Amino acid sequence: MSAESSVKPELNALSVPPGMTAVHVGVPLQATALKEIDKLGVSKIFVMANNSSRSLIAAFVEVLEEKGLLAAPLNSGVGMGGGEAGLLKACDEAAAAKADCVLTVGGGAIQDAGKLVRLWLSAADGEKATVSGIQGAAKDSAVLPPQIACPNSFAMAELTHVAGITTSANTKSGAAHPSMMPTVVIYDSALSRGMPDWVRFGTALRGLEHAVGAVCHPKADEDVRKRSMKGLGLVHRGLTAMVEDPESEQAQTDCYLGGWMSIRALNTGCYPALAHLIQNHYSARFNVHQGSCSGILCARILHYHKEASSVNQERISEALGEAGGDAPRLVRNLVATLPGVTKEHADEGVTPDMLRDFADYMFDKHGARLNQLSPTPFESAKDILDMLTLPLESL
Length: 395
Prior knowledge:
Rossmann fold; Dehydroquinate synthase-like, alpha domain; 2 domains; two-stranded antiparallel sheet; 8 strands; globular
């Protein structure tokens, strides 16, 4: 297994996740993907991308078609959060084409959708795809066709073996199994050119969220904390530099490598973190991008358990460049500099009544799980509501 990059020193602290054969960072997509396709010995590639990446990979899709490797027309119908309708359509298209490999270009929703399409390919027998059918395939532990994941942002879904679905009822569901880990990751910063601010900065902010979640997790050990804080330092450096120059290749690479460290730390027995669980449900309930979920909630959640996690919050402050600083305030101040990232509930159309209903739902349905993850327990739905609605200016 290998990891390739133009920034070799940073990779010394990284390892290729189990179940994966290679992670390539800072390399050209087309040449690298063609080499990996040859190594894998596959012949029918099902390509999925988000709309913002269509123009960037059009030439590559043509090359695949010329070589007789394209299983079906490019699929770009999976929306934000991995919406059920678009996902099921992609599953049916891939199965009809008898694809033996999935190549995904885009953000977290596309990378997760690719994992779920692979699950369906392992189980499809002529019937139409369903969410329950996809989830059933994960339980069967089948050998899945390979996935070449080509991210255009920093959400890091391509480095995990879990995948989310936003159901037609606006609830969060999904599947998880070690076999769902993508086979190869290729990060080419050219795919990030011209990315909207809400995607660029929102997904990079998720790297901060992953690191914070890992270091404060009740099950974190010292190795997890060290790796997550190293990742946080890189994400902070990359985010700060991207504010000055959004297209900076070095800044984007810092965000990617820092995000890699953070998500791998989080997934070492610490997934989900408290914020993950809350924000996954918040995103599904209110159709809010995960980056904006982090912008709205990360500092508030940190403040809620500030006293109980004070030692770890000191480490967060140091990684954010201010030893002895106040971690929730530093996160709030950083988020305030990020273009395109929502900072308040109301900016996403979320009203006080909606938040009250959400707090009731989270406590009633997930209270026990929240208290397994939070350094400070929630005694009632009011505790959750108070946390969600804490004025950021009061930090």
